[in-house]
Amino acid sequence: MVDVEAVIVMGEEKAPTGDVEQQRMKEAEEKELIQSITGCSVSQNVVIAMSGIAKVFVGEVVEEALDVCEKWGESPPLQPRHMREALRRLKSRGQIPDSKYKKISFN
């Protein structure tokens, strides 16, 4: 699995001001990323499906980050600290699986 916090850091590098910007990866970049994670080639249908899943995931994180921002008495734009806290909260509720040390058993 991909480390979600590493993806946020990548986003911060693209938007060094800390502003959350709407960005879109090219389909070739998406395919390359998925292939690097899975270690095998994937079809265009897989890329489309994963893009949809990613959009839903980002939407969940952004909604939670907006809640964090509101609870902290701040107003948008969202800052990286809001996103990190949103991820922490989602992980603590079990809505984001822990990506480290997955043991797969084939019983």
From TrEMBL:
GO biological process, one term: RNA polymerase II preinitiation complex assembly
UniProt keyword DNA-binding present: no
UniProt xrefs under InterPro entries: Histone-fold, TAF11-like, TAFII28_dom
Subcellular localization, as worded in the UniProt entry: Nucleus
GO molecular function terms noted in the UniProt entry: protein heterodimerization activity; RNA polymerase II general transcription initiation factor activity
Domain called TAFII28-like protein: residue spans: 24-89
SUPFAM superfamilies assigned: Histone-fold
Keywords: Nucleus, Transcription, Transcription regulation
GO CC field: transcription factor TFIID complex
Primary location group: nucleus
Superkingdom assignment: Eukaryota
Pfam families: TAFII28
Family: Belongs to the TAF11 family.
PANTHER family reported for this sequence: TRANSCRIPTION INITIATION FACTOR TFIID SUBUNIT 11, TRANSCRIPTION INITIATION FACTOR TFIID SUBUNIT 11-RELATED
Protein's name in the database: TAFII28-like protein domain-containing protein
Organism of provenance: Engystomops pustulosus (Tungara frog)
